[in-house]
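Weekly sync, protein design subgroup
Attendees: M.S., D.O., the rotation student, P.L. (late)

Item 1: inverse folding check
M.S. brought a backbone from last month's batch and wanted to see whether the design step gives back something sensible before we order anything. D.O. pointed out we never logged the input encoding, so this time it goes straight into the notes. Structure tokens as presented (65 positions):
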């Protein structure tokens, strides 16, 4: 559970708001990253255990040697 659930709630709300207003996708992603960094969670520590094994499996399946 994140220490600051406001960031978890604000990120999708900001994303929906910017999409509704017609903002570009890049601006939406930057806003999403800004909210994630402001939440105070260690992003790389949360992201690495999930992403690394999945990316490794995808690479092994897609690019056989």
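Designed sequence read out in the meeting:
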């Amino acid at each position: 559970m994140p220490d600051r659930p406001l960031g978890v709630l604000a990120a999708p709300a900001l994303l929906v708001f910017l999409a509704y207003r017609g903002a570009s996708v890049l601006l939406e992603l930057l806003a999403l990253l800004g909210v994630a960094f402001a939440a105070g969670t260690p992003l790389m520590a949360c992201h690495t255990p999930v992403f690394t094994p999945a990316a490794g499996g995808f690479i092994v399946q897609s690019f056989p040697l």
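Discussion: The helical segments are 5-20, 25-38, 43-62. The chain has one domain: 5-62.
Action: P.L. to compare against the previous round before Friday.
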